[in-house]
Design brief:
alpha/beta; seven-stranded mixed β-sheet; 6 helices; 200 residues; Rossmann fold; single chain; globular
């Protein structure tokens, strides 16, 4: 199923993560990193979204002028496990079809730096996705950023809340840049084209 919704409808791109400087470079916060880069490309700065527990940037992705797609970038400030409430509130406020929502998130079951785009599906134990699905159903897009599995017997919760390792940080900017490219391609050209180009 590809996106065939009203082309005038905005897109909502939700980067998933935890607020606060202590979490900024955690593996679990790669969604924030990607939408921060998208905001920079759009020339926007995140601001508090009224009563919603979130920060937002509004702008356009794609060609200048009316051909660009209207986009709302969102960083929920409710902590990962409660991401669905703020995202759903902003979806209602901006009248965004569920098929025009993209969750950008870390993914344990994919090798570090590998990207997978898809529409719908389960949460695979990811609490941010679980919260979003509970709030609005599962028919939204996902940009899944691989972080790999924890080494040895390290608990998953500890692994995702640790900063990227020094070896990983050498390539992190490149992978975040590529993920931002993929989200832009999804919004402008559709899921099938974006999958063909960026699913690796």
């Amino acid at each position: 199923m590809d996106v065939t919704t009203d082309p005038a409808a905005p897109w909502l791109i939700a980067g998933l993560g935890n607020p606060g400087p202590e979490y900024a470079m955690n593996r679990h916060n790669v969604g924030f990193m990607v939408v921060d880069l998208l905001a920079e490309r759009m020339g926007g700065r995140f601001k508090r979204a009224g009563k919603a527990q979130a920060q937002v940037v509004e702008g356009r992705i794609g060609p200048p002028g009316p051909m660009g797609r209207r986009v709302v970038l969102v960083k929920p400030m409710s902590f990962m496990n409660l991401s669905g409430g703020p995202v759903n509130a902003l979806r209602d406020f901006h009248k965004v079809p569920v098929g025009n929502i993209v969750a950008v998130h870390d993914e344990l079951d994919i090798d570090y730096g590998t990207l997978r785009l898809k529409l719908g599906g389960g949460d695979n134990g990811h609490n941010g996705l679980k919260s979003m699905t509970k709030a609005m159903g599962s028919d939204y897009h996902r940009a899944r950023f691989g972080i790999g599995r924890p080494p040895g017997r390290m608990p998953v919760a500890d692994f995702v809340l640790k900063d990227f390792a020094s070896a990983e940080r050498k390539e992190l900017d490149y992978f975040v840049d590529r993920a931002a490219d993929a989200v832009e391609c999804l919004v402008i050209e559709g899921l099938e084209r974006a999958q063909g180009t960026y699913n690796s």
